[in-house]
Design a protein that fits this description.
Structural class: mainly beta
Shape: globular
Radius of gyration: 15 Å
CATH class: Mainly Beta
Strand order of the largest sheet: 1-2-3-4-5-6-7-8-9-10-11-12
Distance between the termini: 35 Å
Strand content: over 45%
Number of strands: 12
CATH topology: Porin
Number of domains: 1
């Protein structure tokens, strides 16, 4: 079974975002705070404990991500690329590739493939059937959905790479 989550705005400034279970929208899984100062993105559990944070750097593609006190180096493939790679500690350092795409008709999408080119996560923008404050959906592959440490890393990375603060 694929784990599906909904990502929702909590305010009109996109500063506070909620991630909820798609099957039980009242169940908050994560809260995200976006800031203009470092760290730019802070991800917390439903209980308020910080899971991870992200700092972006102006005029560079460097992104510093920390999840559960472990640094994750996120690299952009090239200056003009919308693909990022990183090694996930929860997958024994296996490299994953995030591909970001944006289009007028399909909205903002992100997909992630593991080192065997198998899907790990994908996002999709909100549809007309979603609530007005919905940003979109996040789906984690069955193989990874049941592992909390993998899910935490994936959620922090996805929400960081889709953050309005991305400056690289």
């Amino acid at each position: 079974m694929v784990s599906q989550m909904l990502v929702r705005y909590q305010d009109w400034k996109c500063k506070n975002i909620l991630v909820v279970d798609a099957n039980f929208p009242e169940d908050i899984l994560y809260t995200i705070d976006n800031h203009w100062s470092s760290p730019h993105v802070i991800v917390k559990s439903a209980f308020g404990a910080e899971i991870g944070n992200t700092t972006f750097h102006t005029l560079t593609s460097r992104i510093d991500v920390v999840v559960q006190n472990q640094a994750i180096e996120v690299k952009r493939k090239s200056v003009f690329s919308s693909s990022y790679t990183c090694a996930l500690p929860s997958l024994q350092g296996a490299t994953v590739i995030f591909k970001v795409s944006a289009g007028q008709t399909q909205g903002f999408k992100l997909s992630c493939l593991d080192d065997k080119a198998m899907p790990v996560v994908r996002t999709s923008g909100a549809s007309l059937g979603d609530s007005m404050n919905s940003i979109g959906k996040l789906e984690i592959a069955e193989e990874y959905a049941g592992r909390q440490e993998v899910r935490d890393e994936i959620v922090v990375l996805v929400l960081s790479l889709t953050s309005p603060n991305v400056t690289g």
